[in-house]
Design a protein that fits this description.
Blueprint: H1 2-44, H2 49-72, H3 88-124, H4 138-170, H5 175-181
Helix pairs in contact: 1-2, 1-4, 2-4, 3-4
């Protein structure tokens, strides 16, 4: 069972890594697009509304896939009022409880309430209100779903990792030897 959980944790780790890579590529593409749009506008006096709106699509992709990666790297915003006073094990408990009681349920609620928002946009075929704008307005809205699904994935991975480390911490010192020599 522990090997299965460890494999599952590794799969979730790879998903978060992929999300971080997608975020980086989307951000680089957005920067290049902004530079191209500015060059076209100021140097040649031309521009396209759909290219400007494509920047929003890339921004939503970059931000919503980057949140889970920031969580994994422990670079996310949090308030450390209590944790700096806790021991390493105390911080593990606090992080685990936070993942189980806050991160996963809140992300699940956001997924639940965002689904109709995205599906209605898709069914209506919503597009940009601007002439010459991007179609498929449901795509940046769907990034909310993707982002919070990735947050659940990373929070679950961290919960498994914390549980494994706590289990290792509380294991009796002699229990490993007895298991190894058992017939």
């Amino acid at each position: 069972m522990s090997r299965l959980l460890l494999r599952f944790e590794r799969v979730l780790y790879r998903i978060t890594s992929l999300a971080g890579g997608i975020s980086a590529i989307a951000m680089a593409a957005m920067i290049l697009l902004i530079f191209g749009n500015m060059t076209a506008r100021y140097a040649f006096g031309t521009g396209a509304v759909w290219l400007q709106e494509l920047e929003w699509y890339l921004l939503s992709l970059s931000v919503m896939t980057g949140i889970a990666y920031a969580m994994r790297s422990d670079e996310h915003v949090r308030v450390d009022v209590f944790s700096h006073r806790l021991s390493r094990v105390g911080r593990l408990w606090l992080n685990g409880i936070t993942m189980v009681l806050a991160a996963i349920p809140i992300a699940a609620l956001i997924l639940f309430y965002t689904w109709p928002f995205v599906s209605i946009s898709y069914v209506r075929g919503e597009g940009s209100p601007n002439a010459g704008g991007m179609p498929w307005l449901f795509l940046p809205k769907a990034m909310i779903l993707l982002g919070f699904a990735l947050i659940i994935s990373e929070a679950l991975r961290q919960t498994l990792s914390i549980g494994r480390r706590l289990l290792f911490h509380y294991r009796r010192p002699g229990s490993r030897r007895r298991i190894a020599h058992a017939p």
